[in-house]
Amino acid sequence: MKGNPKLIDTLNFLLADELTAINQYIVHAEMCEDWGYSKLHHSFEKRSIDEMKHAEKLIGRILFLGGTPIVSNLNNIHIGDEVPKQIENDRVAEVGAIEAYNNAIALAGELRDYATRDILIQILNDEDRHMDEIEELQDQIEQMTLPIFLTTQVG
């Protein structure tokens, strides 16, 4: 099937976001593992795997539409040197992803490509869940204080 070039470009833009997120989350996961925060490691690692699945869906859709997936583009990766900075950097990334997916969903609807729109909506739902998880971590840090929060992330 021959897809709309603008939509294929948009999907490649989203793919770059996902590939960037994979890298950012996995580095944060490994840093937390190194610091002994295995629960945070697991949380970040799971989010990275979710982003890999998103990238896989986008690559599949780009190929279906007759496009070429561009996997060599990454956006700036923002690595935090401490847990609160990591979580904030991840929050900012998710805000951008949610906005980009909403825009892409609107474009797919305008182009009457409802199958692509449905795929993007599924991914957006995951991104919304990621945002909820990140905000939950930030709330816990605020309510418990950082030292107490970090003690809950060990083991």
TrEMBL record:
Catalytic activity, reaction form: 4 Fe(2+) + O2 + 4 H(+) = 4 Fe(3+) + 2 H2O
Name of one Pfam family that matches: Ferritin
Ranges of residues in domain Ferritin-like diiron: 1-145
GO biological process: intracellular iron ion homeostasis; iron ion transport
Positions that bind Fe cation 2: E51, E94, E127, H130
Binding site for heme b: M52
GO molecular function: ferric iron binding; ferroxidase activity; heme binding
Keyword terms of this UniProt record: Heme, Iron, Iron storage, Metal-binding
EC number(s) recorded for this UniProt protein: 1.16.3.1
Family label: Belongs to the bacterioferritin family.
PANTHER family recorded: BACTERIOFERRITIN
Role description: Iron-storage protein, whose ferroxidase center binds Fe(2+), oxidizes it using dioxygen to Fe(3+), and participates in the subsequent Fe(3+) oxide mineral core formation within the central cavity of the BFR protein shell.
Name this polypeptide is given: Bacterioferritin
